[in-house]
Specification:
Layout lengths: L28 H32 L3 H12 L5 H8 L3 H13 L3 E5 L6 E5 L1 H9 L7 H8 L2 H17 L12 H6 L2
Antiparallel strand pairs: 1-2
Length: 187
């Protein structure tokens, strides 16, 4: 127990998370309008991302995820699959599948060093040509925009998206490790 003369111990303040609205509350007209405006902004983002993926496929003959992998390989020649997965924020098996697809297309080649377990990935001449003619940003519109946001805005956006996911009662989080181009491919 703290004595009267002892100073309070410093504790780290917890980041504030927006409160979840009660499920039975009817939103006011102004809140409904704000919700519609926000939905429209999501549509703008999704449509722009989808259009960028189409342009990538038309100009380069690869998916958005494959182009992002090419960009990561170009930026770190000799990258390993685990590093590629981390750079793209995807599951390692997804990165392995991307590497396999790019190798089949002749856009990359793999190289083993003295330790046969370590595989390094390099762009081929064809892969470098794809990177040269690719629409920018090669990592995709959304990942690049998120990287450009100020830290406080990104933290706020992340917390609010957590709240949105919770409000939607989404339990399946497997999509978090899938490239967006795979999500939009199904249309």
């Amino acid at each position: 127990m703290k004595k009267a003369n002892q100073p309070a111990t410093a504790t780290k303040p917890r980041p504030k998370r927006p409160r979840r609205a009660p499920a039975n509350r009817v939103p006011a007209a102004a809140e409904q309008e704000l919700a519609r405006e926000t939905l429209q902004k999501f549509r703008i983002v999704f449509n722009s991302v989808k259009s960028h993926f189409r342009a990538v496929e038309e100009q380069c003959g690869v998916t958005g995820a494959q182009l992002w992998a090419i960009a990561a390989i170009a930026a770190a020649d000799g990258i390993r699959v685990t590093e590629l997965a981390r750079a793209m924020s995807v599951h390692q098996s997804t990165a392995s599948n991307l590497v396999s697809d790019l190798e089949k297309k002749g856009l990359i080649h793999k190289e083993r060093g003295t330790d046969q377990r370590v595989v390094r990935i390099h762009l081929s001449k064809e892969g470098a040509a794809v990177a040269a003619r690719a629409p920018k940003p090669m990592i995709g519109l959304l990942p690049e925009a998120l990287e450009k946001l100020p830290k406080t805005a990104l933290e706020s956006l992340s917390a609010n998206l957590d709240l949105l996911i919770d409000t939607m009662r989404l339990k399946d989080r497997t999509a978090a490790k899938k490239p967006l181009s795979e999500v939009f491919e199904r249309d």
